[in-house]
Amino acid sequence: MIDEIFLSQLKQSVDLFLPETILVATFIIALIFDLIYKNSRYLIAVISIIGLVFSGIFLVNQSTSSAAIFSGMLSFDPFGNFFKILILLTTIIIVLMSVFSKELYEGGRKTGEYYILIVGMTFGMFLLAVANNLIIVYLAIETMSISSYILAGYTKEIKRASEASLKYVIFGAVSSGMMIYGISLIYGLTGSLTFDAINSAMISSDISGLTLLIAGLMIIAGIGYKISAVPFHFWTPDVYEGAPITITAYLSVASKAAGFAVLIRFLKVSFFDSTNYANDEIWTLIGTIDWQIVIAILSVLTMTLGNLVALWQTNMKRLLAYSSIAHAGYILMGVVVMTDIGVTSVLIYFFVYMIMNLGAFLVVMIIANKTGNEDIQKYNGIGHKAPFVSACMVIFLISLTGLPPTAGFIGKWAVFTAVLKSEYIWLAVVGVLNSVVSLYYYVKIFRNMYIRNFEDDSEIYEFSPGTYILLIILAVPTLIFGIYFTPLLDWAESSVKIFLGV
Amino acid sequence: MLTDFGIILLFMITGAVFVGIGIFASALIRPSKPTPLKLTTYECGEEAIGSPWIKFNIRFYVVALVFLLFEVEIVFLFPWAVVFKELGWYSFLSMVIFVVILLAGLAYVWAKGDLDWDKPKPYVPKLEDLVITKKD
């Protein structure tokens, strides 16, 4: 006999799952259209955009709902919804960027599958943002990774792209192997894979010690690979350099967002006592292992190495790769705090990081469309050849450094405030010192663009109107959120509520 | 908890016994006339001994993936068929959607030509090959 309650729950789950269902439908429809209209250039991109926008509409509608669906496998809550909207916005911008990418369409390459895979990857990241079970986490990471492996090597005739793809696959396989081993250890210790059940097992039977530390570290390694935190960052520069610029930008924002979502959810729901939480937003750790220190060490390593190595880079994509590692370090500072203020700061920083990082990559892409490569040397005199684009680049770089009046300042301000409030003063000091270091390599770029001597200034680069519109779409919020950030703050504050199980 | 793993142990023992009976029974019944060729290890037409660094045809993997797709479909279809009567049209519709998705995948693989086995094209010598032509 079938349980009626179960069936009605299932139906409710399917209803809530609508944005994801739309993505899957888009995936299949695009696949079929790609088979029928083989030679269309932009058709699949248009279909993908339509699907993504529809998905987004339903996503915004369910932004306040909070429920465990599919028998507690996924938990839909404002927190996951924030990350899903962020991922969706990134995807839409990346698809629009890809349409203007010269590198991608070079030699009449068919790009239908490129857009289809982006939609598939979005689906994986959506699942990761709301996953409440370690098996779903693993499944979502694989869904997202397999698409990204192919996308990283999409321009397969270029040797460095194939190399990037292969390196990505190998590192990915190792890290997901580690992760699944960690998952099995957690299951052995607690007898459960759902985050809230792990939590109740930890409260009731006092599980702690070396095995738990190793298991937790292994899972953090698997997620750390996705967010390119430092001991697991080795793939980042090579993959970011080899992959098409659009995919580099995508990996640096969207897959990091999904990784951070699952990291915060996993740590908070599994390892923090939720009973005190309702009263006074204080999170207390369960067990003897101090996960905050673990994340703090990870954060310090990540930002310091990212910033120091970025100083020596001569390729823009590599430089932005190391800069994105450093930013992952700053965001990890917010994760260390592990209070509502900390999570809010992570959300704010991530939104800001999305806008400014995509902007910087967009500028790199449209300049590479003209010059054919991403050497920083090639940026000499760009400020005179393409004044508007360079002005936008300066805005994005100032924002990445974290100086007012740009949005980057608000992100850094939120994170540092959160860290100081929870009395991790040494961490804040390291963060500020790192920001100072980062100033050098960002300024180096616009020094090259404006001050470095160059041969001829007669040539003026012309860009298509579409790229200008896209640039304005990204540059204006970078300035506006630096001055008027209340809506962002409100949205982030209303999105910190993580669903803690039934 | 222990009883759950006990079932797994029982399953493993049953499996071992089952294989053991099979091997023992066939050893009793079969005629034994070994030849060197019969004694080699069978491995899907590949040389069983030698360097493992040989080139496999990549199409093996494509076919294997497509096969896996439909095998998984069967895995989902069996439990569905058991409870189909009780669940009614809702479940029927769900399964139709599921199968259609898989069929879209099959159509994709088919249209992309991944189901055509790449036959080596024999090279038929032409007259030009036999006549020595002067270059330039």
Cα separation of the termini of chain B: 83 Å
| SSE succession of chain B | HHHHH
Radius of gyration of chain B in whole Å, from Cα? 26 Å
What Rg of chain A do the Cα atoms give? 22 Å
Order of helices and strands of chain A: HHHEEHHHHHHHHHEHEHHHHHHHHH
Please give the largest β-sheet of chain A: 2 strands, antiparallel
Structure report:
The complex is a heterodimer of chains A (502) and B (136). Chain A has helices spanning 4-16, 18-36, 43-61, 78-99, 102-105, 112-130, 134-152, 159-190, 195-205, 210-227, 235-242, 245-271, 277-280, 291-310, 316-337, 340-371, 382-385, 387-401, 407-421, 425-450, 465-483, 486-494, and strands at residues 67-69, 74-76, 272-273, 284-285. Chain A is mainly α and 502 residues long. In chain A, strand 1 (67-69) and strand 2 form a beta hairpin. Chain B has 5 helices and no strands. Chain B has helices spanning 2-29, 36-39, 59-87, 89-111, 127-130. In chain B, helix 3 runs antiparallel to helix 4 (89-111). The longest helix of chain B has 29 residues, at 59-87. Chain B is flat and about 80 Å long. The chains are: A mainly alpha (502), B mainly alpha (136). Chain A binds chain B through residues 1-2, 7, 11, 24, 28, 31-32, 35, 191, and chain B through 1, 83, 86-87, 90, 101, 104, 107-108, 111-112.
Please outline what is shown here.
The complex is a heterodimer of chains A (502) and B (136). Chain A is mainly alpha-helical and 502 residues long. Chain A is built from 22 helices and four strands.
Give the helix/strand layout.
The complex is a heterodimer of chains A (502) and B (136).
Chain A: H1 4-16, H2 18-36, H3 43-61, E1 67-69, E2 74-76, H4 78-99, H5 102-105, H6 112-130, H7 134-152, H8 159-190, H9 195-205, H10 210-227, H11 235-242, H12 245-271, E3 272-273, H13 277-280, E4 284-285, H14 291-310, H15 316-337, H16 340-371, H17 382-385, H18 387-401, H19 407-421, H20 425-450, H21 465-483, H22 486-494
Antiparallel strand pairs in A: 1-2, 3-4
Helix pairs in contact in A: 2-3, 2-6, 3-4, 3-6, 4-6, 4-12, 4-16, 6-7, 6-12, 7-8, 7-12, 8-10, 8-11, 9-12, 10-12, 11-12, 11-15, 12-15, 12-16, 14-15, 14-20, 15-16, 15-19, 15-20, 16-18, 16-19, 16-21, 16-22, 18-20, 18-21, 19-21
Chain B: H1 2-29, H2 36-39, H3 59-87, H4 89-111, H5 127-130
